[in-house]
Design goal:
Radius of gyration: 17 Å
CATH topology: Arginase, Chain A
Number of domains: 1
CATH superfamily: Histone deacetylase domain
Helix content: 25-40%
Strand order of the largest sheet: 2-1-5-10-9-6-7-8
CATH class: Alpha Beta
Length: 314
């Protein structure tokens, strides 16, 4: 049986932030270092290609793509860094990094379709779940998981696509892109109140295809596991997806500096195991996970390792 793919590319390190920015290349270095031990030798390591324009257009308006890859990239080449908003930037290497990040997810989908891999983790940056169809925001340039979802649909046998997001911040971009398509399901646990201010339980989508389960600050393992067990997993089973994606943010960890939830790496491992078990029943185990947040480097490395271990054991 094929194993778990690890899809990444060193060009994802070339998205260089302003000094002091939390979304730094050190995040990806910490993840890759954590996965560079003997227990992860069985991983099938694959270089991420660049996403094609056709893949990006499925999730984003052409004007947004042209801005990131054209005008902003040219300005960054001259100035070094261009700020899009207070949190989001483009540097000289950002266009390449963003194309590799989205391309990793499409490559993972292709690898599963071809039988090369059983499931996959995309160790990439910049992250993606805050990027709606028309702009960059919240550290995110392109919505990597949405690009992958539409690619899975395009190549066949996967009309109904689900994304489960356990990043501490609500994936407003994924919600917006999925909102009007009854065959796209988005479910999120996240801290509320917190950036970006979306993700209320009343946000339901065109056909109850959006499920938000906000968690109060200081919530921990019990609250998170209850949200998954009582709400998200039953809704996922009812939706009956053909393919499941995970927006794997690890910033709900108790050590993370940007939020106030109190999860540990064992919670991420538990959630991954539960999602994969459901995928085995519903969609032949087709699961692609992609890195979102996580800003305490030690906790990020441990959490990513626990997550990938659960994918390998699925």
């Amino acid at each position: 049986m094929p194993g778990t793919g690890l899809i990444s590319h060193l060009e994802c390190l070339d998205h260089i932030p302003p000094a002091g920015h939390p979304e730094s290349p050190d995040r990806l270095k910490a993840v890759l270092a954590a996965l560079d031990t003997d227990s992860f030798t069985p991983l099938i390591r694959i270089h991420a290609p660049m996403a094609t324009r056709d893949a990006l257009v499925a999730a984003h308006l052409p004007a947004h793509i042209d801005s990131i890859l054209g005008a902003l990239a040219r300005e960054a080449a001259r100035a070094g860094i261009v700020m899009i908003d207070a949190d989001t930037f483009v540097s000289r290497g950002s266009a390449q990094a963003a194309l590799r990040a989205a391309g990793a997810v499409t490559r993972a989908v292709d690898g599963i379709a071809r039988g090369e891999i059983r499931n996959a983790f995309c160790a990439v940056r910049p992250p993606g779940h805050h990027a709606p169809s028309d702009r960059a925001m919240g550290f995110c340039l392109f919505n990597n998981v949405a690009v992958g979802a539409f690619h899975a649909r395009k190549i066949g046998n996967s009309e109904r696509i689900a994304v489960i997001d356990f990043d501490v911040h609500h994936g407003n971009g994924t919600e917006e892109i999925f909102w009007n398509d009854a065959n796209l399901f988005y479910a999120s646990t996240h801290q509320m109140p917190l950036y970006p201010g979306t993700g209320a339980a009343r946000e339901r989508g065109i056909a109850n295809n959006i499920l938000n389960v906000p968690l109060a600050p200081q919530s921990g393992s019990k609250e998170f596991r209850d949200a998954m067990s009582r709400e998200i997993l039953p809704a996922l089973e009812s939706f009956a997806p053909d393919f499941i994606f995970i927006s794997a943010g690890f910033d709900a960890h108790e050590a993370d500096p940007l939020a106030q939830l109190a999860l540990t790496e064992t919670d991420f491992e538990w959630a991954t195991t539960a999602i994969c078990a459901m995928a085995s029943r519903l969609c032949s185990g087709r699961v692609v996970s992609t890195l979102e947040g996580g800003y305490d480097l030690a906790a990020l490395g441990r959490s990513a390792a626990a997550h990938v271990r659960a994918l390998m054991e699925a």
